[in-house]
Amino acid sequence: MDGNRTSASKHNYLTTLPTFNLQLLEMEDIMSLTPLGAGQEVGRSCHVLEFRGMTIMLDIGIHPGYDGMNGLPFLDRIEPDQIDVLLVTHFHLDHAASLPYLTERTNFKGRIFMTHPTKSVLRLLLGDYLRLLQMNNAKAEDVLYTEAELQSCINKIELIDYHTTVTVGGLSFHALNAGHVLGACMFWMELGGRSVLYTGDYSMEQDRHLMAAEIPEQKPDLLIVESTYGVQAHTSRPEREARFTGTVERVVTRGGRCLIPVFALGRAQELLLILDEYWQANPHLQKIPIYYASKLASRALRVYQTYANMMNARIRAQMDISNPFSFRFIQNLKSIDVHNFDDSGPSVVFASPGMLQSGVSRQLFDRWAADPKNGVLIAGYAVEHTLAKEIMAQPKEVITLEGRRQPLNCLVDYVSFSAHVDFVQNRSFITQVAPRHIILVHGQKDEMGRLKSALVHMYKQYPENKRPTITMPPNLQEVKLKFARRRSAKVMGTLADREDEPQEGEKVEGIMVTNNFSSKIVSPDDLATYTPLRLGSISSKLHVPFCGAASTLELFLNEMYHGVKKYETEGIDASVTKFELQGGKVSVTIGQSVGVAIVEWEASPAGDVIADSFVALLLHAQSSSASIRLTSKPCRHPRENNSDEPNEKKVKFEEISTEMNLIESRLRLFFSVLQEQYSNVEAAFEGAKATFEIQGDGEDILCVVKVDFLDEINAQVSVESEDHELGLRVQDCLRNTAMAAAPIRV
Known about the structure:
This protein has about 750 residues and is an alpha/beta fold. It folds into 4 domains: about 10-15 and about 660-745, TATA-Binding Protein (2-Layer Sandwich), CATH 3.30.310; about 30-230 and about 420-485, Ribonuclease Z/Hydroxyacylglutathione hydrolase-like (Metallo-beta-lactamase, Chain A), CATH 3.60.15; about 235-415, Rossmann fold, CATH 3.40.50; about 540-630, Double Stranded RNA Binding Domain, CATH 3.30.160. The protein has 19 helices and 37 strands. Helix 2 crosses helix 4 (about 145-155). The longest helix has 20 residues, at about 115-135. Mean pLDDT is about 85; it is low at about 1-25 and about 635-660.
């Protein structure tokens, strides 16, 4: 059978035929961020973050340069009822003023979180915002919500303290101090094993009453950061204060009126502290009045006094002696009739709103703009499409609220007290935070582009695998980030309480419980300790009609499953045979009842499937043609032709039932498959071994296959062939056959 041949190609391998390696594909999670506002613009900050089934909205502001619906974020591009959580960083209108519209005029059902000062001040600011709309006779369609809707919205807000972790579904988050204004915060979020830091507006500079922003201890996967000033660098704070006070003094000493447009709360309090201190130090100015024209003046100062404990050490120390917000030289004007206001002499007026779009600040500007003795001092960031931004370009004429043109002769100066980071501070913060991905928001396109270029240039000095991705999406452009899903679980309870150290590769058996993307493995006995679950079991029993032989069922069970255990005992009338799988969790018993097989199992996903297959095998074992041949018996009635056929059949049955086994059946299966694939195949069987010769048209042997089963599952296979391609095909054929026909391991 060996013949005289040379082996041009030989494939020897030791393999577990029914087992093959699968390369586990790393599952990827997609995190997406879509700006609905403040994407390559400043104003109407609103971003939607989506990850692992959670949808989070970050801020919900209006654009101060547009009226009514035009100033809203692009809320028509989302389904508000899909938002799980809304996080508001601070009370400025461009970050929070659309909140009542979202809660009262859409189907939003999520939870809303902000700090205590933010809620207190926001109620005042939005009430003042509605008052300004009424004062300017705004069109009905430009009024986004009513006073009643505002109050309903405020009642839905939940409060959060700095450094207090809140969990909503799969999201946990806490607030960090952001500087900027009283109560402003960054949000650190964790969901699905990933972390996100959203800065909102933040300041890294301590001023007269606020602390600088915090730097988180951990490194986020994603940083969503403002880019308001791009690559601009602020002058030093003493220099800015000197320029601010010097400009005010220059205007009033020449007999002029100095208008400082501000929002009622926020930077106004910082500027009031600076100017009141300057007036105290300069007695020659103390006869010149300083007015804080705002209906909110007294209430705003009460809010600031209430939350003095959230301010810097200077203010907290001063509060022990006197109220730092009780100004000596500043008069609060709850109401001001611009037309009857006595402005015959020099004065300083703080008036809202800060963008000069309407209200008292706009009325005073229209009245004073033509006089060269007067001055307008812009002390914060001026948003595009607002009058404050327009006059910084020093136009010769401006258009009043009444629509008439008038010359712009007064002084216009700009000193930045906006409490946003400049490039140096932003770069330092980003470097310390060290995120994997950076998304720039809240900045004009050109400034944002320059910041991105500067950051890209900076990160060129880093190794390539340490460089973060940097994007600057416009409004409505979705940014998608891919993260490999982290698959880990904590072993807890008695499973972890063991004296010896677990070895690498050691199997741990327990129940894995997953909640909010966090998984832990516990012993069934510890389930009640670490979860609200209680352990129970369901035992099922099914009676299936069965008239076949136990040996036939044994053959079918072993063909299907590996590791079937057989037990026999003597019953009252006959022997009882029991087959078990999964350590006795699934069993079938024959002989206990006449004509019935009893299938018993403990309910579980695997147990239910195996029990179903047992029922199918029982039915198949008594109805298939193979079963009939194995279990058929000779007719006992006398026959004229008395031959020895019955004895032959009985012997044949006994031979099959006693000698046919799993290994032989697999060897014969290989033989049958090779015969179907190749026309001329010779076989020689010897116990657990077999040799197959694939012959050509003549007597040439094209391929020799030797199979030696080490046990019921594992085999050593040798393929020899002069034709390399033929050898590979035969090898693959046998491998696939073994994998398809092998018993299932359970």
